[in-house]
Every structure is written in C-alpha cells, then in structure tokens.
C-alpha cells in the first residue's frame, strides 16, 4: 500500500504518469527531481502517513522504495 500511495504522490508532484514509476525508480536520476521537489514529496508523504522522516536519508540515489521503507520504519518506531 505504501508504494502505491507514494507513487501517486510522486507522480502528482512531478506531473508524471504513475505507470512509469516503480519502487526501484530513483527520485533524482530517473525522475529528474531536484532537492526541493524531493522535499515536497517527503513532506506530503509524512502528512499522508502521519510519520516523521529524516530528509538526510534521501540522497541522490534514493528510490521510491526507499521512501516506502522509511515510512514503514517510522510507523514501527512510533
């Protein structure tokens, strides 16, 4: 469920078709997102799943799956 919702958020934020995004899609390199856009994706993800995420973990190699994993980890640590 997390992956699908994060794909929706990512696609909407970047104006892309969600069908072209998977858990392995890299936010920066594959989607061309910049740090501000990734920040917006992370903030909307935090609001959607009611979790707090550490922006520093979403480096240039971060994927949609990494973001979903961070959501799961944050949920279990609450």
Provide an overview of this structure:
With 78 residues, the protein is mainly alpha-helical. Helices cover 54% and strands 0% of the residues. It contains 3 helices and no strands. Helix 1 (2-14) packs across helix 2 and helix 1 (2-14) crosses helix 3. The mean pLDDT is 94.
In short:
The chain is an all-alpha fold. It is 54% helix and 0% strand. It is globular and about 30 Å long.
Key attributes of the depicted protein:
78 residues; mainly alpha
Write the layout of secondary structure elements.
Blueprint: H1 2-14, H2 35-49, H3 64-77
Order of helices and strands: HHH
Can you give the mean pLDDT? 94
Oligomerization state of this entry?
A: single chain
Low-pLDDT windows of residues: none
Give the tally of β-strands.
0
Strand content: under 5%
Quick one: overall form?
globular
H/I helix tally: 3
Measured between the Cα atoms of the first and last residue, the distance is 19 Å
CA radius of gyration is 11 Å
